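Quick one, tokens below:
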């Protein structure tokens, strides 16, 4: 493989990861589907958790800390059970279903 081929491959893989993270951000890819997606293997769990709708940076770090997962860990380095627990925690922390949220302030 030439240096040019390696660069092209690396750019292709980065573009693929960006698209997957965009799909997570849009809500097209749910946390429970992460386990089967090889494109996420090199993505750090903190970056993945932060883009889940309704989670954000602070909540993502709190979830990871509560599970004892280091922020810099690539998704593929988690065991199957760790992936399942993190996906479940991210699903639970995501946005409320439509119509199921808290009542408006003031109670009216």
């Amino acid at each position: 493989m030439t240096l040019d081929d390696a660069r092209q491959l690396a750019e292709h893989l980065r573009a693929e990861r960006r698209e997957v993270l965009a799909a997570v951000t849009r809500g097209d890819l749910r946390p429970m589907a992460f386990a089967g997606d090889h494109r996420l293997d090199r993505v750090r769990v903190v970056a993945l958790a932060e883009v889940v709708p309704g989670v954000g940076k602070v909540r993502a770090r709190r979830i990871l800390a509560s599970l004892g997962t280091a922020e810099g860990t690539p998704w593929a380095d988690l065991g199957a059970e760790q992936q399942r627990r993190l996906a479940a925690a991210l699903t639970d922390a995501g946005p409320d279903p439509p119509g199921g949220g808290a009542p408006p302030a003031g109670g009216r």
